[in-house]
Amino acid sequence: MPVIFKGLPLLSISSFYFRARPALTMGPIPLCLLLPVTVLATVVIAEEATVDDEYTWPQWKVPLVRNRRTVPLSSPKFSAQPQLELTGTCGIECQRRLPAPSQDDLEQFLSYETIYENGTRTLTSVSVQGEVTALSGNSSSRSRYKREVYGTDTRFTISDKQFSTKYPFSTSVKISTGCSGVLVSPKHVLTAAHCIHDGKDYLNGAQKLRVGVLKEKSRKSRSRRSAESEKPSFRWTRVKQTQVPKGWFKGVSDGVAADYDYAVLELKKAQKVKHMDLGVISSVKKLPAGRIHFSGFDDDRPGNLVYRFCSISEESNDLLYQYCDAKPGSSGSGVYIRLKEPGKKKWKRKIIAVFSGHQWVDVNGNGMQQDYNVAVRITPLKYAQICHWIKGDSSECQVA
């Protein structure tokens, strides 16, 4: 019996990732055709090499982000309330009119606060060493979609424990402040900064922050008569510390705050779940498939993991506008794509962005706002910073 995801057979889900090649048969070839066929084969091989390159993860040399100085700060008030959606952020159109940030600007934006489980916090200033490579951006489509859900809802509820607790869905986690996140190491979760901090203060639930990892219910707790027994439960883990880039704070980066809507949570206990690595891609729209994927815990489907995939509407160096249907609760999800590993035939999923959520963005600088579903891209510089937070040694983060 096929497993159904919200009315969709499992085979249909699998077809998003795997494409079967049709079987070809060939009879005897006349000698006079061998030369043309040989030439054609050479052309086909060259074309296949090009296609393979398009489907291969690029390798990036990333700059080094090194700590300069760490100073203690006063404890925060933890007075901020969760935000269902962000407003007034400077979007792609708005950012096109901004000057390129200087080296000093980048070092200020990438300086970061660390908030610890006991309520104390520190500020760490950083230095950026090496060439800062910009991604290709400002690619757009004239068609624009609005709202959190665009027409027919194309989200899939992954309610069966056989799939929600298996990779890649198992990398999705629930944040106790009401957001989602993704495991990027056994002890680290990547999420959106606004799930922790509203730009002025930390959320009132950030001091006792917890992360829920999906787990299968034990046989003893299952009820044969109840369909609810098939839903996965959460294994909750306390957060040891959280790091948020200073660029997210109001009054620091102003117009580019949306670019820094990401944070990393370090868990007190390592999780025995496969995590997903970070990746950097120059342009999503130029990929042969051009689709992104992510899973999160949307508020309108409580207790369930929700998966979706979609195309990109517009992209800049730091942001993605995309068509994925989403609701509050999915903010902080890891946006990923699937490409081949360099020199191998193996395909691998990597996180290329953090889903920031439904936002009202400033499109022309005069206060006019437009709503989009927005994701923050992993650039080489952000990769360097996040990798440094995870590994603790920036020298291990020189190639993405």
From TrEMBL:
SUPFAM superfamilies: Trypsin-like serine proteases. Keywords: Glycoprotein, Secreted, Serine protease homolog, Signal. Residues 165-273 form the Peptidase S1 domain. PROSITE patterns: TRYPSIN_HIS. One of its GO terms (molecular function) is serine-type endopeptidase activity. GO terms for cellular component: extracellular region. Residues 214-234 are annotated as: Disordered. It is found in: Secreted. One of its GO terms (biological process) is proteolysis. It holds the Pfam family Trypsin. The keyword Hydrolase does not apply. Belongs to the peptidase S1 family. This is Inactive serine protease 35. It comes from Myripristis murdjan.
